[in-house]
């Protein structure tokens, strides 16, 4: 099945589905091996792993290069965090073309202005996009996609930017009418009250995606009971790897030796396995039989 069709099915499934964050080919592979059915290519995590801020400091082509590695390394669908689409409708529709060429399954764009700022930073100062302009962007993206199953998800930042339920519902209806395949309702509260309020009024008119980073205390059952379709674990591979890298760097720096280290890191052969070294060795036997003699 095509990756686009898989993502579409996940979003429309009657069961709650989950996407796990990855930020490069390696983390994408780890997410797939863990059993997840899809990947969230997080703007926060990709920018952080590049050592820059989550405000479009990395150019969109630099992001697309990373996405190409992620897509090549995995067989499950990738939903890309497309920020604001990197400009106006024209930039956003060109992004769709480039993502489809790389076998990406869908993209999520948020109704803020370029350059965006991460939703958890200075969110009271984050201007929202004009509704009509954002609807044109969604339409242009949907009109551009060649594969009917490519997903365009519209992310609503009203709660993040200090607006209420009324504005959220108004935008939700407008973006759905513009052709969005699903809506991501973002919240930075430590509880799910904003999401619950929205779900009570929305009435299942189209699939809903959430990112419970700050309301992380919800149990699996509580998440299920919200009635949303897709949950994104948005940054947890990035955050766990930062913790692991800090710990090992500090320990090696202090001990100036690897004596106590070897058993707390994966063996090299695991790195080679994840890189697919075995496949190359088989290919060498087939296509390059005398390679060992050279
Ligand atoms: C991301 O993962 O980059 C997101 C989600 O956009 S958030 O960081 O919550 O804005
Ligand atoms: Mg983001």
Automatic annotation (TrEMBL):
Identify the keywords attached in UniProt to this record, alphabetized: Isomerase, Pyruvate
| Any coiled-coil regions, as ranges | none
Q: Which InterPro entries match?
A: ICL/PEPM, PEnolPyrv_PMutase_core, Pyrv/PenolPyrv_kinase-like_dom, Pyrv_kinase-like_dom_sf
What organism is this sequence from? Seinonella peptonophila
* GO molecular function terms listed in the Swiss-Prot or TrEMBL record: phosphoenolpyruvate mutase activity
Q: What is this protein called?
A: phosphoenolpyruvate mutase
Report which superkingdom the organism of origin falls in: Bacteria
CDD domains, alphabetized: ICL_PEPM
Gene3D superfamilies named among the record's database cross-references: Phosphoenolpyruvate-binding domains (3.20.20.60)
What's the Enzyme Commission number for this chain? 5.4.2.9
Which is a Pfam family this sequence falls into? PEP_mutase
């Amino acid at each position: 099945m095509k990756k686009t069709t898989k993502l579409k099915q996940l979003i429309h499934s009657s069961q709650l589905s989950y996407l796990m964050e990855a930020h490069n080919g390696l983390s994408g592979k780890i997410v797939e091996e863990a059993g997840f059915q899809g990947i969230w290519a997080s703007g926060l995590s990709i920018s952080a792993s590049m050592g820059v801020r989550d405000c479009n400091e990395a150019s969109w082509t630099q992001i697309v290069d990373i996405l190409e590695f992620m897509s090549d390394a995995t067989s499950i669908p990738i939903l890309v965090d497309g920020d604001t689409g990197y400009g106006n409708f024209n930039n956003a529709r060109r992004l769709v073309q480039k993502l489809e060429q790389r076998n990406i399954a869908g993209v999520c764009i948020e109704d803020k202005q370029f350059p965006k700022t991460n939703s958890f930073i200075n969110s009271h100062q984050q201007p929202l996009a004009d509704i009509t302009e954002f609807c044109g962007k969604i339409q242009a993206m949907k009109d551009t996609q060649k594969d009917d199953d490519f997903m365009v998800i519209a992310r609503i930042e009203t709660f993040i930017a200090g607006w209420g339920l009324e504005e959220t519902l108004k935008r939700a209806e407008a973006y759905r009418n513009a052709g969005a395949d699903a809506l991501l309702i973002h919240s930075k509260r430590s509880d799910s009250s904003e999401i619950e309020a929205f779900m009570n009024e929305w009435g299942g008119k189209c699939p809903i995606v959430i990112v419970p980073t700050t309301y992380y205390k919800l149990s699996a059952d509580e998440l299920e009971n919200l009635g949303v379709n897709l949950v994104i674990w948005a940054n947890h591979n990035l955050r766990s790897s930062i913790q692991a890298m800090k710990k090992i760097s500090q320990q090696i720096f202090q001990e100036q030796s690897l004596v106590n280290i070897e058993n707390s890191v994966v063996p090299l052969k695991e790195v080679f396995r994840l890189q697919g070294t075995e496949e190359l060795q088989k290919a060498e036997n087939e296509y390059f039989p005398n390679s060992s003699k050279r």
